[in-house]
Amino acid sequence: MVSWVGFFKQPAQKVAGHRLGFWQAAHLSIQGDKHVRDGSPCQDESDSRALEDGAWAYVVVADGHGSDRHFRSDRGSALAVAAMRDTFHAFRNRARDLGEPGIDELAQLWEIEAGEVVARWRAKVHADLVTRPAQVPGKTEGERGLVRYLDDFAKRNGYAQLEMLFWQLRRFEEYARGAISKEAALLGPLPYFNDPAWDQAKFGGWQAKAYGTTVLGVLIGPDSLHWVQLGDGAMVQIVGGEATYLVPPPPEALGNLTPSLCDEDAQQELRYGTSLIRNGKIPSAVLLTTDGVPNSFAEIGGFFAFCQELAKAAPDLTQRLPGWLREMSRKGSGDDVSVAMAWLTELPAKRHDPPVEVPSDPHENTGEIVEATAEPVDERGGEELDIQCQATQGGRDPGTGRQVVEGDDAGPLEPGHPVEAADGPGKGSDRGVEDGR
Fold first, then answer.
1. Predicted pLDDT at 63
2. Cβ-count burial of 178 within 10 angstroms (0-12 exposed, 13-18 middle, 19+ buried)?
3. Is 215 helix (H, G, I), strand (E, B) or coil?
4. Which residues contact 96 (CB under 8 A, 6 or more apart)?
5. Alpha-carbon span 240 to 272, nearest angstrom
6. Domain boundary assignment for the chain
7. Which of 105, 255, 311, 377 is geometrically suited to a Cys-Cys bond with 238, CB 3.0 to 4.6 A?
8. Where does the record place the region Disordered (predicted)?
9. What pLDDT digit, counting tens, does each position of 375-413 carry?
10. pLDDT of 355 higher than 50
């Protein structure tokens, strides 16, 4: 199953007198081989787009956690991607209002907007819970993921604690029915478990954990890159044909442990920054992947080689990537796999995206400014490429907006050599740790 694939392209503007070309972008999320076999949904989500005549582009991926307590993580990852989209658009709209901001102004503005990612996600989770409260098993079969969570909870904690959890779920249903609104903007962020205004005994603390997910995002502008990282996965740039980390993985991400949007200290775990682009020189491609991709390789060198081949295959990416990722999951991690990539080209384009107005409230936080080194981009000609995706049954989920589509298979995997992975827990397997990450 492919969750969504997009292919967007726009002609670019000139930056500091140097013609950059224009950005194109594509993204794809594939249901992992293990999830196909056990009937679990795809818990990855991804998105990408070129904006403002290709002078801007964004890429984002999110990886929902797979253990039973994260029984809505497929929705959580979709909401994380939506929260990043809101952040990108809010930043661009506010930057536009400043006229021609300098790098310091952009970095300060990014600190404010990036610092809102966790709150935006928790607000969307709050609205989703109020709109679709967890369905406790009873006269109906109940929500499948919740039923599995309750079975696991009973084994771990006993039936007395299970009865308490049932009671808390029903109290939350009552809370949802009496909510003042079902809109995230009016409801506000889901309260934290230790919030004095939150009745822990009455409602419990399962709500955010149910939606647990990572998120990685990069917004590329004419003069700077702006990034957000919360959790594992890979953020890669292609410079001079060589792949390197744009931002290294967080040191806290070890094995199946990862920082998560559902953590009580997610705001402190959030990492973000601004990378300066000098003299119109930028990476020729920026890639984000969920951890199922690098975990499919025995060594990081194999993963970087794969990223380099993706950048070389950019003109045909939408035809070739579905087959590559399916084989990677089958021979490698077995996990869901996602790639979102933006790359530069000189191809002509006719597609135009209207500006998106997204209001946001400022929030103070800290970030960093680092200087990006990169290569000039060679001009290349060619024919315009159309969007390559085909809708299948399932359509769009009304709650998350997740579109189920099928891409063309591309035959055998060419770049890199993923390692064979055995079934069961291990590198690249779903998270099932006690702390809920």
1. 97
2. exposed
3. strand
4. none
5. 25
6. 2-115+216-406, 125-209
7. 311
8. 391-437
9. 333 322 222 222 222 222 223 333 333 332 222 233 333
10. no
Task: Specify the pLDDT at position 423.
Answer: 35
pTM: 0.77
Q: Is pLDDT at 179 greater than 70 in this prediction?
A: yes
Q: Record the tokens describing residue 250, joined without a space.
A: 């967080």
pLDDT tens digits for range 185-222: 888 899 988 888 888 889 999 999 999 999 999 999 88
Task: Find the mean pLDDT for residues 226-233.
Answer: 97
pLDDT category, 165, cuts 50, 70, 90? very high
Sheet of 403-406, strands arranged across: 242-247, 234-239, 285-289, 337-345, 22-30, 2-9, 403-406, 390-396
- CA-wise closest residue to 375 among 289, 287, 279: 279
Identify the CATH homologous superfamily for domain 2-115+216-406: PPM-type phosphatase domain (3.60.40.10)
Q: Measuring CA to CA, which residue among 305, 315, 339, 255 is closest to residue 417?
A: 305
Cα–Cα distance between 326 and 337 in angstroms, integer? 8
- Average pLDDT on 236-263 reads 91
CA distance 242 to 26: 20
**Segments of 290-354 assigned E as strands:** 337-345
Nearest-CA neighbor of 107 among 370, 369, 362?
369
Q: Judge contact between 24 and 343, C-beta under 8 A.
A: yes
